[in-house]
Each structure stands twice: as C-alpha cells, then as structure tokens.
Design goal:
It holds the Pfam family Methyltransf_11. It is an enzyme of class 2 (transferase). InterPro entries: Methyltransf_11, SAM-dependent_MTases_sf. This protein is α/β, with parallel strands linked by helices and 245 residues long. It has 6 helices and 7 strands. A 7-stranded mixed β-sheet has the order 3-2-1-4-5-7-6, sandwiched between helices. α5 links the parallel β4 and β5. The longest helix is centred in the N-terminal third of the chain and has 43 residues. The chain is elongated.
C-alpha cells in the first residue's frame, strides 16, 4: 500500500480549472460573434484576452497540483534536513491533514514520536481525515510512532514544553486573522526551551513572526518567497526561549 496525500485546497483547484476550461471554450464563439459585429481587430482583442485569462487560470490550477504533490514535499524535506535533528525528538504538527509533512518528519526522527492535531476540514485537503492520516502512517511503516488527535490549534491539549519541534504547514491562514497570533503562541508554548517552531504559509507570515517575537522566541527568521509552490510561500522559523517571559 502506498501513502496518498491528496490535493491541498481542492475546491480552489477545481474552480480555477473549470473557469479556465470554460473561458478557453468561450473564446472561439466570442471571436466569431464579435468579428461579425465589430470587425476583426476588436474580435481578436477580446478573444485573446479570454484565451490568456483561461491559460492563466489553468496554469494556476496545474501549479497548485504540482505544489501539493511535488514542491511541498521537496521544500519540507530541505527544511527538516536543515534543522539537523538528533532523531529522537517529539514532534507536533497542527493541521497535518493526510500527513504529508508529519510523515516526512517521521523519516527525520526515526526514534522519535509524532503527534498531529487537526479539525479535519474537507475544504483544506481532498480526502482529509484522521483515518486517512493513520492509513498513510501504516503505509509508511511508522504508525507505532504517530498519534492523531482531534483539536484546535488555538487551544492545544498539551502541557508547556511537551515537544522538541512544532510544525504548521498551510494551516494557520485558515483561522480568522485575529486568531492567528493565538495559534502561534500555542505552538511556542508547547515547545521546550531551545526547541524549534517552523511555520510555512502563503500569507500572514509577518504576523506569525511578530507573535513569536512577542512570545520571547529567539532567532526568528522569515524566508524569502518560495516560488516552487502556488501561492508562493514563506517559512517562519524560531527557537523557543530558554527562559519564558
């Protein structure tokens, strides 16, 4: 059995693809109608605009699929590899979905324990659900080291300093803007002194970095945009403080 991680934001991908196809199909009859009514120049201008818009939408949908299936995995592999983990860490991910990031982290901590906490919203990932994550964990041979809980990232059911590493990938932006700092604060709270927080997202990253600084985190860093994914993303990394404020 092979792990299957689905597509992120499937509704958005589907809408972009359907609109792209519809506008592409519409371009030719619009050209024919406008050519008869307004002449060739106007018909070419309007139909070309429709065709270009269609191509843009289709490109975005394909890019998002590539992001889910390829680019996200590569970026997280490089990111986790760069943390120089010991291999026995306790790792938390909020919003793990079907486990693409959490199970990749499992490869970097072969003696560690991993916990995923999610509300499992179908609009965030195709086939989203705790059963899908656990099935993928079994397929990857790491089910004995993976724990899955229902829960809200704004109110994590763990004591302080429970984990060595806390991850959030394309998850925090789903919260209302006013609630995101609370979720970031929870990630920092449950990480032990000297532990790491890593957040990947396409919006709100400046606010995440500010929330980490306000929480007393050290070495807060926001990366440049990574254009291999669509929408382009940034990574926010930080180290939990040795002494809590």
């Amino acid at each position: 059995m092979r792990a299957k991680f689905g597509i992120d934001a499937p509704g958005v991908v589907r809408t972009l693809a359907l609109l792209g196809v519809a506008l592409g199909v519409l371009a030719w009859p619009v050209f024919a109608l406008l050519r008869a009514a307004w002449g060739g120049a106007a018909a070419v201008a309007v139909s070309a605009g429709l065709a270009l818009t269609a191509l843009t939408l289709l490109t975005q949908s394909v890019w998002m699929v590539y992001s889910s299936l390829v680019a996200k995995h590569r970026l997280w592999h490089r990111t986790l590899d760069g943390l120089a983990l010991r291999g026995d860490e306790r790792v938390l991910e909020v919003g793990p979905g079907r486990g693409a990031v959490l199970l990749r982290a499992a490869r970097h901590v072969p003696r560690g324990h991993l916990v995923g906490v999610d509300l499992w919203r179908a609009q965030d990932q195709s086939g989203n659900g705790r059963a899908a994550l656990l099935a993928n964990a079994r397929a990857a041979g790491v089910a004995d080291r993976v724990e899955v809980l229902d829960g809200d990232m704004r109110d994590l059911p763990f004591p302080a300093a429970e984990f060595d590493l806390a991850l959030a990938g394309l998850a925090i932006h789903n919260l209302p803007a006013g609630e995101r700092a609370r979720a970031v604060g929870e990630l920092l709270r449950v990480v032990r002194p000297g532990g790491r927080v890593v957040i990947l997202d396409f919006e709100g990253t400046a606010g995440y970095a500010d929330a980490l600084r306000q929480g007393g985190a050290d070495a807060v860093h926001t990366s440049a945009r990574h254009w291999s994914m669509h929408p382009p993303v940034r990574l926010v990394t930080a180290t939990a403080p040795a002494a809590r404020p």
